[in-house]
Each structure stands twice: as structure tokens, then as C-alpha cells.
Design a protein that fits this description.
alpha+beta; FAD/NAD(P)-binding domain; D-Amino Acid Oxidase, Chain A, domain 2; eight-stranded mixed beta sheet; 8 helices; binds flavin-adenine dinucleotide
Length: about 375
């Protein structure tokens, strides 16, 4: 089979790119080794980030998240939660600076009357001094991926799940030898997240990555609303509420390769202990399950650890017409797709513009 573009990897990034390029009239195939959304996307906290978390550490990412939050909330309302998160904490130098920066960056951070918030959420620690409403809310990440695929297929895209790539050859075009036979394309996009190097190495390329493992604990929610600890980004600072369940996370443990990821047995108690500063009873609420995911972060310096590395994204072209996309967040997947699709358009001389920032992403009645 012959295509203009083959995308490898069916997570948030790959499926959003599948949709974007198909809508711009490219003949596109998406190859996923397993099922759609079986990597980090499904193992994430599934918080549609509003930007507040990153205002001091990473203002560019904070702005990108705020803008994407607005776009996704508007174009895909069926997969986004209705309740905005509260950031809660104590009055100190950090919170003061963060509020000022949020205002400067035009990131929503509306201070609330803490006494009213205690009435609304009785399980909160009564020593907390402040509460801020932000645009952070939960998102159904799997559905985001499926809707992207449905939309891409409607525009003529080909979805190939459970497909293994054995070998990649470069002739005039790229030839992929797969479990479905030979596939051919002018452009390849490697969107395999934490597994990016398993594909990159097939054509002699290595991307400098830091693998940061994060574990999440799930329990019956103690609050109807997502809660985040307003302080420097660290472990156990977010309790995202999905249909009656509180997802508390995360840890951030550097591992050498995706294959080394395994459930961290200490994480459950550690997360609960740390977050009890916000919800004291979190320690006594039964855990329903724990799960773990791997953040593929682009490594700029040798000394960086998982919390220091920026959440921004990079696009590499190596070799020619073979693009790799790495880093970013679930929240910015649509934007990442737009940028890499713009690059393909420029190379292919296609002048069409991105439409995913305004076309509804929803189930169709067809
Ligand atoms: C614990 C944790 C919590 C997080 N929480 C949030 C959050 O709340 N909000 C947020 O915005 N971001 C969050 N993130 C970050 C976010 O989840 C990721 O940035 C994003 O999901 C990455 O998506 P992706 O499509 O690039 O990768 P993935 O979702 O990993 O997709 C890659 C896909 O490629 C496939 N694949 C791999 N190898 C091959 C191959 N050889 N052939 C074909 N297919 C292959 C995989 O099966 C997978 O489906 C979190 C990350 C972690 C680890």
C-alpha cells in the first residue's frame, strides 16, 4: 500500500497528527503496534492542564497549555470535565509570585473565599490559607484518541492497529516491512513517545531522552472537584477527579529505558502521606488501583532530572523526510500535531492550513 505519510504510534500525539494531516487532504496511515491509546496517554493523570502549575517553572509551556485548554474545552466539550480544579495552599513567597505571574501571562487564577471552599469541600485540611480556581479539568484521553481516529478515517485516513514494524528501508520513498506486508510513504512521522528510539534506531538515529516514570493511585473521591497543591511542581500534588474517583499523583522516578518501568510498591503510601496536607483523610481511603506511565522528556543537559526537564516538545528530521516528535503533554498534543503537520505541508508544497483549532471533535451521528 502507498501513502503520502505514515505515522507510527497511536497515542495522543500520533492520533491528533493523523486527524490534522487527513483533514489537509494527505493520504495518511497510522500504525499502532497494539491498540490506540495503549501507551503513556492512557497511563497519564488525564488533566487538561490550565497552565497554573508551570507559571514560574516554564512560562512558555504554561501559555501553551492555557491556550490548548481553551481550544479543547471549546471544540471537544463532550470529553472534558465540567468542574474546574481548585489550587489550594498556604500564603508564602511562592504562591504570591505564582499569582502575579499567572496574571501577567493571562492564565486564569481566580482567588476564592477559603471559608466558602471549606463549606463546599468539607474534607479539606482546615489549616489551608488560600484557594484558587483555574481552568484545569479532567479529560478522557482515550476518547480524545478515538475521536481523532474517527475524524481522520472520515477524511480518508487508514488506521492499522496491531501492526508490527520489522524493518525500515529508504529508497526513493520509505518502505516499511510490517506484519501487514510492505507499506510505502514519502514521509514518516515517529510519534511513539517513550518508545521513540525503538523506531529511530531502525534507521540509525538516537534521540536524547530522559524517561521519567510516574505512578498514580486511584480511590473513591473525597471531593467532587479536582484539587491541586499550589507550590513548586513536585510529587503528589494533584488529585484529579474522574467520574467519582480521585486519581492522586504522581511520582517522578528516572529509569533507564521504558522496559524498566514497573509498579512502584512504595508509591501508594508515599502519595497518600504527601497529599494528606491537602486532604487529611486521603490516607484512610482504600486504594482501588495503582498504575504507572512513562514521560518521554527531551533531555537538554546531562544533569537534568524528571522534574527539571521542560515539558515542551521537539521535532527532529533525521534522515530527510523522517520526522520524530518527542516531549510535550497530553494537553498540547493537538498543538504538537499542528506544528508537525505544518512542517510536512511546507516540505510537500501543500498550502492548506490547520483546522483542528476550530473544527468540533465529537462523535458523529453517521
Ligand atoms: C504519570 C503521568 C501523568 C501525566 N499526566 C498528564 C496530565 O495530567 N496532563 C497532561 O497534559 N499530560 C500528562 N502526562 C504527559 C502525557 O501523558 C504525555 O505527554 C502524552 O500522553 C504522550 O503521548 P504520546 O502520544 O506522545 O505517547 P504515547 O501515549 O505513549 O503513545 C505512543 C504510542 O506508540 C505506540 N508504539 C510504541 N512503539 C511502537 C512501534 N514500534 N510501532 C507502532 N506503535 C508503537 C505505543 O503503543 C503507544 O500507543 C503525564 C505523563 C505521565 C507519565
Amino acid at each position: 500500500m502507498k501513502y503520502d505519510v505514515i505515522i507510527i504510534g497511536g497515542g495522543a500525539t500520533g492520533t491528533a497528527t493523523f486527524r490534522d494531516l487527513s483533514m489537509r487532504s494527505f493520504n495518511v496511515a497510522l500504525i499502532e503496534k497494539s491498540k490506540i491509546a495503549s501507551g503513556t496517554t492512557a497511563a497519564s493523570h488525564q488533566n487538561l492542564v490550565g497552565g497554573m502549575r508551570y507559571v514560574l517553572k516554564d512560562p512558555i509551556v504554561a501559555k501553551e497549555c492555557a491556550e490548548e485548554n481553551r481550544i479543547i474545552s471549546k471544540t471537544a466539550p463532550d470529553i472534558v470535565g465540567k468542574n474546574n480544579n481548585y489550587f489550594v495552599g498556604f500564603r508564602n513567597e511562592y504562591t504570591e509570585k505564582a499569582l502575579k505571574e499567572a496574571m501577567k501571562l493571562d492564565i486564569r487564577a481566580d482567588e476564592l473565599d477559603i471559608k466558602a471552599v471549606f463549606k463546599d469541600i468539607p474534607s479539606l485540611n482546615k489549616d489551608l490559607e488560600m484557594a484558587i480556581e483555574t481552568d484545569d479539568k479532567n479529560i478522557n484521553a482515550q476518547k480524545f484518541c478515538w475521536l481523532n481516529c474517527t475524524s481522520a478515517i472520515e477524511s480518508g485516513g487508514m488506521l492499522l492497529e496491531n501492526t508490527e514494524i520489522y524493518k525500515i528501508e529508504k529508497k526513493d520513498r520509505y518502505i516499511l516491512l510490517t506484519s501487514r506486508g510492505e507499506l510505502e510513504a514519502s514521509y514518516i512521522i515517529n510519534a511513539t513517545g517513550a518508545w521513540i528510539n525503538t523506531i529511530a534506531r531502525k534507521i540509525g538515529v538516537t534521540i536524547p531522552l530522559l524517561y521519567s516514570q510516574g505512578t498514580i493511585m486511584v480511590q473513591k473521591a473525597l471531593s467532587a472537584r479536582g484539587l491541586q497543591y499550589l507550590h513548586e511542581p513536585s510529587d503528589a500534588d494533584a488529585y484529579i477527579v474522574h467520574t467519582g474517583y480521585g486519581w492522586l499523583g504522581t511520582t517522578s522516578t528516572t529509569i533507564n529505558s521504558p522496559e524498566d518501568a514497573k509498579l512502584e510498591p512504595w508509591a501508594d503510601e508515599y502519595l497518600k502521606e504527601k497529599f494528606s496536607i491537602i486532604l487529611p483523610n486521603v490516607k484512610y481511603q482504600k486504594t482501588v488501583k495503582n498504575f504507572t506511565g512513562i514521560r518521554p522528556l527531551f533531555k537538554q543537559k546531562i544533569t537534568e532530572n524528571g522534574r527539571e526537564v521542560s515539558r515542551d516538545f521537539r521535532i527532529f528530521e533525521e534522515p530527510e523526510k523522517f520526522l520524530h516528535i518527542v516531549g510535550g503533554k497530553l494537553t498540547t498534543a493537538r498543538l504538537m500535531a499542528e506544528k508537525i503537520s505544518d512542517e510536512i505541508c511546507e516540505k510537500a508544497g501543500n498550502s492548506s492550513k490547520c483546522k483542528t483549532d476550530r473544527e468540533p471533535l465529537q462523535e458523529t451521528t453517521k
